[in-house]
């Protein structure tokens, strides 16, 4: 299997699982001058025989074609994902998320025998007409990031219809856990609480999200890779339960045994028409087609994330919180 975006949050966990399962894995990591494989540096140092790591960029069509050569399945996770930055640099999101996906599709199409799993996002739904959200819900890009992911998903569907390209789309709702960017809501709450502040600065407290622990999301990818689905199929991953940012804050306070108050910071608030008020999945299709369900509760997942943040703080020389 080829995993693009292998050095990232979900991608690195996915590579570790696949390597541990004995799969021959090729990981495409974003090129950097330090020659780092991101979260896979430690695994690369162990030199497992069934892992090959490459540095590159999905915007480079020739490099992508070479990376796809001789693999059976491509798990395409490489993307720009930060919503706030997409307001400032929308072209970057089109180039990576749409044209990068196009490069992977073209390479898969040319190879002829390679299957592809596209990584989508629940952000493509926008604020839904009703909940729970099913895969048939209309798509509505309320941010440049969401619009770029819709474009990528639609290209995958178009290639399935136009060329019978064996591509399917996996659409996780909000994934959290160790290695997630500290700009995301759970890490930003926990990291502020763990620093001992009395006020935690957040965006809007009312939006509700459906939160899945990263190990469960990764298992969904493994099952999707093995599933015999029609080209163009879409399957979403979620718990079927949504919690508000305010509720997440309270749970995080309990997880670290901290007392603080949440403060809305206007610099962290999305433009009003761009904010998605609720994302809550209907996971029945994933259960029926993949045999997938969640296994880690939100409280347990928060505890695992706290332990990782505390360990990272010690590694980085940050003080102020001890397990």
Task: Please describe what this structure looks like.
41% of the residues lie in helices and 16% in strands. It is α/β, with parallel strands linked by helices and 323 residues long. The chain has a domain at 2-174 and 214-240 and 281-295: Rossmann fold. The strands form four sheets. It has a seven-stranded parallel beta sheet, sandwiched between helices. Helix 3 packs across helix 5 (90-111), helix 7 (185-194) packs parallel to helix 9 and helix 9 crosses helix 11. The relative contact order is 0.13.
Name the descriptors:
Rossmann fold, alpha/beta, 323 residues, seven-stranded parallel beta sheet
Largest sheet: 7 strands, parallel
State the CATH topology of the domain at 2-174 and 214-240 and 281-295.
Answer: Rossmann fold
Shape: globular
Protein structure class: alpha/beta
Helix content: 40-55%
Q: Which regions contain 5 or more consecutive residues with pLDDT less than 50?
A: 317-323
CATH class of the domain at 2-174 and 214-240 and 281-295, please? Alpha Beta
Relative strand content: 15-25%
- N-to-C series of helices and strands: EHEHEHEHHEHEEHEEEHEEHEHH
What CATH architecture of the domain at 2-174 and 214-240 and 281-295 would you give? 3-Layer(aba) Sandwich
The total strand number stands at 13
How big is the Rg? 19 Å
Number of helical regions: 11
Distance between the termini: 38 Å
CATH level-four homologous superfamily name of the domain at 2-174 and 214-240 and 281-295: NAD(P)-binding Rossmann-like Domain
Mean pLDDT: 95
Major sheet: arrangement of strands: 3-2-1-4-5-6-11
């Amino acid at each position: 299997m080829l995993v693009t975006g292998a050095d990232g949050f979900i991608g690195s966990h996915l590579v570790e699982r696949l390597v541990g399962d004995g799969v021959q894995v090729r990981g495409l990591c974003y090129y950097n001058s330090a020659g780092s494989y991101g979260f896979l540096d430690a695994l690369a140092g162990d030199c497992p025989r069934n892992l090959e790591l490459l540095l590159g960029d999905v915007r480079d069509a020739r490099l992508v074609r070479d990376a796809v050569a001789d693999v059976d399945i491509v798990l395409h996770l490489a993307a720009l994902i930060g919503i706030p930055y997409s307001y400032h640099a929308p072209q970057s999101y089109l180039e990576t998320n749409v044209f990068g996906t196009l490069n992977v599709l073209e390479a898969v199409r040319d190879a002829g025998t390679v299957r592809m799993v596209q990584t989508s996002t629940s952000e493509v739904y926008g604020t839904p007409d009703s909940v729970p959200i099913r895969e048939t819900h209309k798509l509505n890009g309320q941010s440049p990031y969401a619009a770029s992911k819709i474009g990528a998903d639609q290209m995958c569907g178009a290639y399935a219809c136009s060329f019978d390209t064996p591509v399917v789309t996996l659409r996780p709702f909000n994934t959290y856990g160790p290695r997630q960017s500290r700009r995301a809501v759970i890490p930003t709450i926990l990291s502020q609480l763990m620093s001992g502040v009395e006020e935690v600065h957040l965006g809007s407290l009312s939006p509700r999200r459906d939160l899945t622990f990263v190990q469960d999301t990764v298992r969904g990818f493994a099952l999707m890779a093995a599933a015999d689905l029609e080209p163009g199929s879409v399957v979403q991953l979620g718990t079927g339960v949504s919690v508000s940012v305010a509720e997440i804050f309270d749970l995080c306070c309990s997880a670290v045994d901290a007392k603080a108050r949440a403060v809305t910071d206007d610099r962290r608030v999305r433009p009003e028409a761009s904010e998605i008020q609720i994302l809550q999945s209907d996971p029945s299709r994933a259960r029926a087609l993949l045999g997938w369900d969640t296994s880690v509760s939100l409280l347990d997942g928060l505890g695992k994330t706290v332990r990782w943040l505390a360990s990272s703080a010690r590694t980085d020389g940050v003080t102020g919180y001890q397990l």
